[in-house]
Structures are given as C-alpha cells and as structure tokens.
Design brief:
The structure is a homodimer of 528-residue chains. The first copy, chain A, is an alpha/beta fold. Chain A has 17 helices and 16 strands. The first copy, chain A, has 2 domains: 28-171, 2-Layer Sandwich (Chitobiase, domain 2), CATH 3.30.379; 177-488, Glycosidases (TIM Barrel).
Chain lengths: 528, 528
C-alpha cells in the first residue's frame, strides 16, 4: 500500500502497490536534466540495495587512479544524503549494484574526449546489476550522474527506488565545449568554493571551468616565473598558490571537467603592475600592458610557461577584449615607439594580440580570444584561434564562415551577472543560429555561461549561477530535435532539477523571476 | 625572508624573518570570534606538523563514540582545506599535535553542560603539543574551534603557522542558551542543508538549533503516532522521516548543538488538518486547533510522545503566539462548547496552552512558549516555562521579575528575516538590559536569532544568517565587559570571521549594508 500525492488537495490517495509503480512515472515524469539523446523505460519499480556495489566486469579501464571508485562512492552518497534509509528491505527486485565497462584504459581528459554512454537498468532478477558502457571513463561519469537522477527515496518504505524500469538510455553531448566562467579577480573565491562550483557543474554535465583568474582589480595567482605578480592580490590571504591551481585542475579533471585558464591581455591588466610597475605605460596611466616593452612579452611567456605545467587543457584564453589604447598614445616613450615602428593604435593592438598568440602556441596551446580580436583583425588570427563571442548574437556565423572555431557566450542571454536575464533566455539561446552548413556547424565548439564577479563572492555565487546555467547546459548537451521549442514545456522538469540541486546542498535559486531571486512567498520548491 | 602586506599600496615589504613573526600579530590582530574570556599571547611563530596528531593523555573521556576523533579530523580538514600545504617543512618549532584532556567520561549533551575550556599553545620545543583541558567533551570541541582560528596559511613557505605563541586561553560562555531558529514549514530545507547550518553554527559557538518544524503552510515531519499529519507537507518529497529527525539530532549533538523542536499550538496549525480534518474548527475555518475536541490534545500527546524519543533536549517549544481565536467563536460546535464550559476566547486560549504544557511536562519536558502566553496569563504558566521574547524589548525584565526563565529574540534586533536589521544591531542587543539582580540575571538563559522562512530556502539561507548571527553569537558568548561598546570596534574582526566562514564554504554575506547584501563592487572580502 502506498499513496499518490495530490499537491493541490494535499491528499494522499491510497493505491494498490501495482498501481503505485506505474503512477510514479506520471507523477515524476521523465525528470532527467539534461535530457538524454534517447531514453526508453518500462513500468516496474526496483529497489537499490543498501549495500550497493560497483562492479567493472568487462572493463578495460583499470581505475588505477581510483577515479571511477571515487565517482561511484560520490554518487551513492548523493543518493543517500537526503534521507536515512531503512535496513528493512524487500527481498525481490533488488538492484545489487552497477557494472561499469569502459573501453579505453586511458583517463587523460583531452578536449573532445568521447563522453557518450549507454545505461541499462533491468527490471527483474534476484540480485542484478545496472549496466553502464562507455568509450571512456568520462562517459561513464555522466552515466553515473544520469543513474543518480533515476533514484527516488520512498517515504513509506524508506528505501531508495528506481521507477519505470527497465531503462535503456543512449546519450552523448551535442557540443564538446560546455563551459562556465568564474572570475576570481573582482572577488576572490576560496578554493573550497571553486571546488563546490565544479561539483555542481557535473550535475548538469558541464565540462569546462573557464577560470578568469586575473583582471584589473586583483592578481590572486602565484606565478613562479614572476613571483611578484601576486603582489597585485587584494590581500595577503586572498591568493592561490601554484599548488592550489594544480589541486583545482586535479579536482576538476577527476570529475571530467577541464579548466581553461585565462590571462586577459593587453587590457584588463592593471593589477599586474603592482609587482612589476614597468608593465604599466606609466604610474599614472596603468593599462594596457606596455606594448613597447619587451618585458611585457617576457612576463606573458613566463606565465604561459608556468601555465603549461599546470593547465593541461588544449586551450588557454588570452582575452583581448575591451582594450583602451589611449595610454599608449599619451605616454611619450610608447608614442615614440609606435612612431618608430610605423604603427597606429590598432596596429599595436593587433601586434600585441598576435605576439601573445605566438607565445601561447610555443607552449603547445591553442588559443581562445574574446571576439574583439576577430572583429578587428579576424583574418590575421592564428588558425589555432577559437573566437569567444560575448558582445551579442550573430558573431558565430561570421567566425565559422571565416573558417575559425567559435564559442558562444552572447551577453544578452548567457551572462549570469545579467540578473535580468531569465532562465528561459538561457534555455532558448541557440549556438547554431543561422549556421546550417555541417562543416561550419562543427566549428562551433559549444558555449559558455559567464559568472562575472563584480557583484559575486562566496555569498551569492551559486544562486546566481543556478538554475540558469542548467538551462544553458541542456541547450549544449541535448540533441537539437529533443530540445523544447517553448521553454515553458520544461519548466517543471527544470524545477525538479533545481530542487535536486538544493537537496545536494547547491544554493540554486527559484525559477520564478530573474536571476538570484529570493522566494517571493512560502511554498513548495517545485512551484518556485 | 618574507613580506608584510600593505593593502593600500599593494606592496609587499620584505622583512627579516624575525620581524615577520611579531608583525603578523599586528597585521592579523587577535582575530578570534567570538572573543574568549581571556587570551594571552607571546610573539613567536610555530608551525603545524603536516602529520598533526590528536593525543588524549590524562583524559577521562574514552571517546567510545568517536566524537572527539571526528571533531579533531574535522578541524584539521578545515585548517587544510583552503590551501595545499607543502611537504617541505621547518625542522624546528613544529607543533606535533594537540593533547585533549577531558574530565568527564560522559558525553551526554544536557542543557547547561559545562562548555568551558583551557587552551595552551606553547612556543618552543622540538615536537610539542598544544594542551586542551575541559570539564566535558563539549568544552573541548569549542577549544578545537578556537585553536583552528589561531592557524594561518603562510603563502611563502606554504605551511600552516600559528602566530604569537605562546597562547593561554581561558574561556567559557556567558549564557548557556545560544540559539538559531530555522523554519522548515514556509520552505522545506533538505537534510544536508540543515546539517550545513549546524556546521556553521559551531564556528561561532552557537549551541541550540531551534527547529520550527511545522506551521500553517506545511507539515513536513513524519509523526509515527499520527501518520497522516505529514499529508500536510508541500509535496511527496518535501518531508522528513522520523529517522531523518533522529539523524539531525545525532549530527547536531555530536557537534555540541542541541535541537529544540517546536510545535506551535494552538495557532499556526492549518497544515495539521490536511491529514486529520477534525483538527480544524471547520473546513472553512481551519485554525486554531479545535479547542473543544479531545482529539486535538490526543494528537499533541502523540506528537510529544514521539518527540520525547527523538528530541532529547530538556526543552520542547510549544509556540502559543499569534492565536486568532475567531474560528472558535464563529464555529457553532465550538461556540457551544465554550458556553458549556463558561469560557470566553481568552479563557480558551489559556486553557489550550496550559493543557499542552501539562502534556509536555508529562513527557519529561520543560516548556518554551512565545511571549504572548506570558503577556496574557503569565501567572498561570507552569514554573517549568521559559518565556521566549520576540515582540520587542523590555520583556525579559518582566519575565524574570516574575521568577520565570526567559530567552531573548526581540524581532527589531534579532530577527534575521528582517533584512534591514544590520549586524551592528545584532551585536549590541543586550539580553540583560535593565536586569541587575544576579538571581534574575540567571533566569535569562540566553537568546536566539530567528531565521523565519517566508523568503528563505536553500538558495539564500546561509547568507541571510551570516554574518549577522555571528554578531549575536559574540554577545551571547563573551563576558559583558569584553564586548565592544561601539560595534565599529569589532568591524575588522567580524569581517575577518566572515572571510573565514567563506573559506570554509559558508555563504556569509558582506558586512556592509543590511542583511544578505550582494557585494556592491569589486573588492577584498576583508573590506566588504
């Protein structure tokens, strides 16, 4: 005997057990986020063993680093964190564990690594296993996340159930680059906070943490080659050691998340000069970096040399946006240098960006640059460039028409610091708008939502990110033809996901209203 | 060689090592929160071993439940969570661990348990220990928290240091009751979120979690004696099983935090009737609980009987506030009952509260009631009553003059949902205002800050609580004569504590402005 909840009347309808099983499907619907490529299910309920096991029968992946074991334990903890489960248990339809078979023995997280997976949850047996198959361990991690979202706590029996079995899910991401930007220059974010952001990203299968490390306001990172750079930090303790950076990368990669490091040059660099004042055009005119000074490029080379030992992602971000070159023309020694080299301000901007690109390439990186570089001298950029759109829509189509790669972050829709950008806008922002040529479509690597830090610190970062970032995450993961044309069609599923984030301790804000809204009145999480 | 940070100029002054040690004291000051009763220190820096050990030489406490070991490991994790420490290490002035000597073998968390402690950190030796002495394990837990606040990460050597040793700290709380209210009726708070609130309470030595479990809007808790009560929950999954409640109590008690359960009667009870409609005066007039119906008291008895097996705190909270009795006089069968019993509305309100008190007493509880009960019929309340002030100031003095005990939560200063109540008001709110008689002073058990949940859910609870609750926590812990007369004198120390909370992953908001402010501009945590 059990009951079906009617939220309107708050009555609990008692039904026969058999009815309950199928009715849960209709009550909960298919509440996976993001929606998989294909998911088929039946109508049986099965029970998770309280001694749920990981098995790796048929796997080529040895898990020497413990990555899979750790992910499995994390998943079990998530499933069980919410409620104390009962030791009394049905002795039938008990799922004993999950068997994970990974084809590749390699767990290096390269860009474009195969993230696909197959998940099968049978409906019957006395002690049977769910089956996960994946080309790489990173596909298997996504499968575990999907599996966790199939599990429900039954408040009558107090056991964890899996409804609507058997399940067969085939899944893979639409785009290989699904990013979230954090900004540790405008406000320092402690390492445990960055780790919690990484944790939360994995719940909606985002896979790139774009770390906008430094900017005008502060330079929090230790750079061994130029140890005075972090004199530009806000304070003694608002800093990251290089080992902290290594730890953040290690932590992220073990969860399938790449870390994209950014140094934004030549603008947005005021904080660099606190340690090395000669990087400033002058003491009174303190950015962009002095284009006439070889030391500027030596420092960039030192930073990228250090980065190449820490940030193993294929890309480094070199910024290049919002460069106001007036200090170059008003500072006598730079003005003289421009004259000597027959450059105007635009030439010097291009010269700086391209030279920085070459330095990055010499350290093995492909480069990401903000779109102003493309808008000003797109034909001169290295073919290794990925153009990062932000100013508005319509840029990606131009970039890929020119044969370059692109990442979409148009600020009107995908800037999380725009509090008036609602989740519906995040959901409907389509990276391939006006791009129909399949070759050009492939040049759009994906997109990224940006959590700029002017008004963001530990106190408000997570509720400003979530649930809006999750709306974009489905756009980036789910096949186009499975995406809702009208975002209101996914409201209840996204609300369900936001409540799931809450249960996992993530401070995801209500859906109603704009970003970071506080609840407007008492009510259910699922309705707010 | 190292540097002293000048936040204004962002310059790092190089000093000889010996200078550094003493200068850290002036840079960081005495940044403990709350301020201990007495703290003396020297000027030496010592280093925490990377293999920091717990020892219990001379302790009578066997730690059979692992409570101390767990607390020690938690503390080490907190100290080390922020930055990766270096394996290279000085071979002198290394603190090998902490020795904890507890007098009492008992780790039952009774109300008024001795929370005092003595902490000594020596300055010299080759492999020496800090010494903690406490009457009970709960004093020792506070000592570990204080110890953790003495530790700093050195960004040059990458080791954890303890500055200004030797330290001798004698400490004990001013009030035995230092509470925080959470409200799971207006919005459901998942169990992991409640646990994270409990964690954060221990950082400022709060020791009572007042769990306002149910109210008009929802009844989320399973009550085994009356299993339909939680039909009044918002939804199927926004509920706590009785085992969840047991787990919350267990979790809190292991950290020295008592859980005060509240059922607010006879008002604030609309949600009760979804499961048992006869508790409503009528279907159209649904609160207070039907005073004429014996079933109302049977249900209260059942709840408190179940509570007595779960909530082992000396007190249960029976509410009693904001009772609008109009449904009693407009519902014919109740009106008739009132007439039969020669009661008016006030009489019936008193009758209900006193009868509920007697039920609680029969289950072994002392009772806490909101102040309206005292304001209306204070002379009739059980001597086991603690009056919970909330409407305004000036109540405690009347309560204790009448020989009853009191808890202070005047809403103008200590209601966290009052977003316009600033931390300065939380800090300066004095529970003993106008109470000079020592016997009467002892009747003020302490105070409580209240996080009512109308606009609070997982997304915004922690930054609405912190740092303002911490300001009240010092008022409740620190001896009166060590409290700042002008709150601005503690601004930088409180800012330091708020940044410490952030480093520990707690979403404490900026100090500047009112409650739950987002950062107004880029800047250092220590300045916002």
């Amino acid at each position: 005997m059990d009951c079906i909840w009617d939220t309107r009347s708050r009555l609990c309808f008692v039904l026969l057990f058999g009815n309950l099983l199928s009715s849960f499907v209709s009550v909960h619907g298919l509440n996976l986020w993001p929606m998989p490529k294909s998911a088929n299910h039946g109508s049986n309920t099965i029970y998770l063993s309280t001694n749920f096991q990981l098995s790796t029968h048929g796997s080529n992946y040895s898990d020497g680093s413990g990555l899979l074991k750790e992910a499995f334990e994390r998943m079990v903890n998530l499933i069980e964190a919410d409620h104390t489960t009962n030791s009394k248990f049905p002795n039938y339809s008990v799922l004993a564990g999950v068997n994970v078979a990974v084809q590749s023995p390699d767990d290096t997280l390269n860009f474009g690594v195969d993230e696909s997976y197959y998940l099968n949850v049978p409906a019957k047996g006395s002690a049977f296993y769910a089956q996960i198959e994946a080309k790489t361990i990173f596909g298997a991690l996504h499968a575990l996340e999907t599996f966790s979202q199939l599990c429900y706590f039954n408040f009558t029996t107090k056991v964890v159930e899996l409804h609507a079995a058997p399940w067969t899910i085939n899944d893979l991401p639409r785009f290989p680059y699904r990013g979230l930007l954090i900004d540790t220059s405008r406000h320092y974010l402690p390492v445990p906070v960055i780790k919690s952001v990484i944790d939360s990203m994995t719940y909606s299968k985002l896979n790139v943490l774009h770390w906008h490390i430094v900017d005008d306001q502060s330079f929090p990172l230790e750079v061994p080659s130029y140890p005075k750079l972090w004199n530009g930090a806000y304070s003694y303790s608002e800093r990251y050691t290089i080992n902290d950076a290594i730890e953040i990368v290690r932590y992220a990669e073990r969860k399938g998340v790449n870390v994209l490091a950014e140094i934004d040059v030549p603008g947005h660099t005021l904080s660099w000069g606190f340690g090395y004042p000669s990087l400033w055009p002058s003491k009174s005119c303190r950015e962009p970096l002095d284009v006439s000074n070889e030391f500027s490029f030596k420092v960039i080379d030192g930073i990228l040399s250090d980065f190449s030992k820490v940030f193993k992602f294929k890309f480094v971000h070199l910024g290049g946006d919002e460069v106001n070159t007036s200090c170059w023309t008003t500072t006598p020694h730079i003005k003289q240098w421009l004259n000597n080299h027959h450059m105007n301000e635009s030439d010097a901007y291009r010269y700086f960006v391209l030279r920085a690109q070459n330095i990055a390439i010499s350290h093995g990186y492909d480069i990401i640059n903000w779109e102003e570089t493309f808008n000003n001298f797109g034909d001169k950029l290295s073919p290794k460039t990925v153009v990062h759109n932000w100013l508005g829509s319509g840029v990606a189509e131009k970039v890929v028409a020119d044969g370059l790669r692109c990442i979409v972050s148009n600020q009107d829709k995908w800037y999380l610091d725009h509090i008036d950008a609602n989740w519906q806008g995040f959901y409907t922002n389509e990276p391939l708008t006006n791009i129909s040529n399949p070759t050009q479509q492939k040049l759009v690597l994906g997109g990224e939502v940006c959590m700029w830090g002017e008004h963001i610190d530990t106190s408000d970062i997570q509720q400003t990110i979530w649930p809006r970032a999750a709306a974009a995450a489905e756009r980036l993961w789910t096949p186009f033809d499975k995406l809702a044309k009208d975002p209101e069609q996914v409201t209840s599923r996204l609300a369900h996901f936001r409540c799931l984030l809450n249960k996992r301790g993530v401070q995801a804000a209500p859906l109603v209203g704009f970003g970071r809204q506080v609840p407007s009145e008492p009510g259910s999480c699922y309705k707010q």
